[in-house]
């Protein structure tokens, strides 16, 4: 669907509930730490389908495909570089199976390449453009409703991704940044720079996802809201990640405490609400209870 169709859907609902984490939930189901979630799209599709269904049962209006790392660069690290098309197509077809006629939209998840653009890293803009274009094209052809370019940290990379999508389609785009350093991204980008840049584009919504603590994400929401007329997408982690020294990361905010904050996020201007790392279907059910 294009921007005006997604806008119409949002007007109907006023606030849309998105889903929770993919990676941390699949890990709870047995995905080894350090293994790409996309490897389970082909290797354990029942688990991916089950997670999608649990989010839908919890009340999600939108689910994201298990394709965050489905671009050619990340799939290479996962040993799946020869299966890029297959992984993305299968992830979308599992999402369609989970939706099965219900009034739930499928958002194609597009994460960062994981490499730095020149001059900080080896990635050229031209190559990044090709990588994003290929990823988006496979997801669009497989039938996603819109795209979420998410967990971005570099404005130039995000813009390259947006241009790559626009070179092939007018599909609606949400572009979301992760403010890992509190109110700045890993690259030091601030929400006002994100707003200034994305306001000039035709992305439908500007997002805040993953990031640091719930408080820091809320602060970013408060900064961003007056700077843009675009709807805001808000998917924070279940609190700040804490490592246990054995390679595991824990998130401590309970479903009840998470859900109880959802009204505050809407009050502060979020129109799409969900969760990122550490948020389970139970967290989503708690959000749903608070959003009408
Ligand atoms: Zn996250």
Protein architecture, described:
The chain has a single domain, classed as Alpha-Beta Barrel (TIM Barrel), CATH 3.20.20. The model has no long low-confidence stretch (mean pLDDT 97). With 292 residues, it is of the alpha/beta class. Helix content is 45%, strand content 14%. The protein is globular. The structure holds zinc ion. Zinc ion binds at residues 210, 237, 276-277.
Mean pLDDT: 97
Which topology does CATH recognise? TIM Barrel
- How would you sum up the global shape? globular
Structural class: alpha/beta
Any guess at the CATH architecture?
Alpha-Beta Barrel
Low-confidence stretches: none
Beta content comes to: 5-15%
List the defining traits of the structure above.
292 residues; alpha/beta; globular; TIM Barrel; two-stranded antiparallel ribbon; binds zinc ion
Tell me briefly what this model is.
The chain is of the alpha/beta class and about 290 residues long. The protein has helices at about 5-15, 25-30, 40-45, 45-60, 70-75, 85-100, 125-140, 155-165, 190-200, 215-225, 255-260, 260-265, 280-290; strands spanning about 15, 60-65, 105-110, 145-150, 175, 205-210, 230-235, 240-245, 250, 270-275. The strands form two sheets. The protein has an eight-stranded parallel beta sheet with strand order 1-10-7-6-5-4-3-2. A two-stranded antiparallel sheet has the order 8-9.
